[in-house]
Specification:
This protein is 77% helix and 0% strand. It is built from 13 helices and no strands.
Length: 319
């Protein structure tokens, strides 16, 4: 196992370098100027703008700028935001707790929904429960998150007045009331993302379980008189989880930075909203840092999925 991990980490290094080169080149060649407002401001002399660009190395060749960025990144210096003048690492750390809370719990909710519903529907294919689950899954996956988000706001915030529709980080309450307010304002964004992902995963779990439940070793286990619950848990679900682990592991990093629409609807100050605001402001250091972190998470979660394969299926060996 240790040798396998070392080899995978070594392979990950050129992958990350290649991704960083592509990202940096695309952002460097993209149209737009982060100091465009300074150029249109008559109160700022042109030489001040030129000196500022020179101090940040924006006029240097792309390859020199890339190696300077890479060296600074390896030293833990992610640069400064062009807009807020705050270190990029501090911006990401400010948004990370909210992202872990809202986006992370939404994925937990999706798994809690998808696993039991998908397994139970596969155990009783074409039954009433299976048909209802498939119908609801199709509806949940077909509706975009901005529609369900607005629907939740109209129902629970405006009509029923149960939940706030704007996520606030400056809650004035303390103690248990703070926890209550935090939970209330997190319910809707968590539910919107969790239901959307859970609906997609229900279909995938059902298909994976149906593929395994017809195999010979499951029939043999039932013929031996093993209880049905044990057959499902040990011989069906465990083997069916291998493709599900792949799906969840590869989608998890994308969700952390890709839940932009939901974060914009509920004003959740997460990584996704940070990325979209940086793109609109042409804030290259922030864009580069967030996309590079996302690429790193894709590789890390892919490695985690490979490790889980060995736990789910003992036949898989790491050499």
């Amino acid at each position: 196992m240790s040798q396998y991990l070392v080899r995978r980490l070594i392979i990950a290094i050129p992958s990350l370098l290649g991704i960083s080169v592509i990202l940096f080149t695309i952002l460097a060649l993209a149209p737009g100027d982060p100091f465009e407002e300074l150029a249109t401001n008559p109160a700022i002399p042109p030489e001040v703008r030129a000196n500022l660009r020179a101090s940040l190395g924006l006029d240097d060749p792309i390859h020199e700028r890339y190696f300077a960025w890479l060296l600074a990144m390896l030293q833990g210096n992610w640069g400064y935001s062009f807009v807020s003048r705050i270190p990029v690492a501090d911006l990401i750390l400010q948004r990370l707790p909210t992202t872990l809370l809202v986006i992370g719990l939404s994925q937990v909710l999706a798994l809690v929904i998808a696993l039991p519903v998908g397994v139970y529907a596969a155990m009783r294919p074409y039954s009433i429960f299976d048909q209802i689950a498939n119908t609801l899954a199709f509806i949940g996956f077909s509706l975009p998150t901005f529609f369900t988000g607005l629907l939740f706001i109209l129902l629970f915030s405006i009509y029923l007045d149960w939940l706030p529709f704007v996520y606030r980080t400056d809650l004035q309450s303390t103690g248990w009331k703070w926890w209550g307010d935090q939970i209330r304002q997190s319910i809707m964004p968590i539910a919107v993302l969790g239901l959307f992902q859970g609906a997609a995963w229900v279909r995938f779990v059902r298909s994976a379980v149906l593929d395994v439940i017809r195999l010979d070793h499951v029939t043999t286990a039932r013929a031996k008189g093993i209880p049905e619950g044990r057959v499902i848990n040990r011989h069906v679900v465990r083997n069916a989880m291998i493709p599900v682990v792949t799906l969840v592991a590869l989608q998890m990093p994308i969700v952390f930075s890709g839940a932009i629409v939901t974060e914009q609807i509920f004003r959740v100050p997460g990584i996704g909203s940070l990325l979209i605001s940086a793109i609109l402001a042409n804030d290259t250091p922030v864009i580069m840092a967030v996309t590079f972190v996302t690429a790193f998470l894709v590789i890390a979660f892919n490695l985690l999925a490979d490790i889980l394969y060995g736990w789910l299926d003992p036949r898989i060996s790491y050499r």
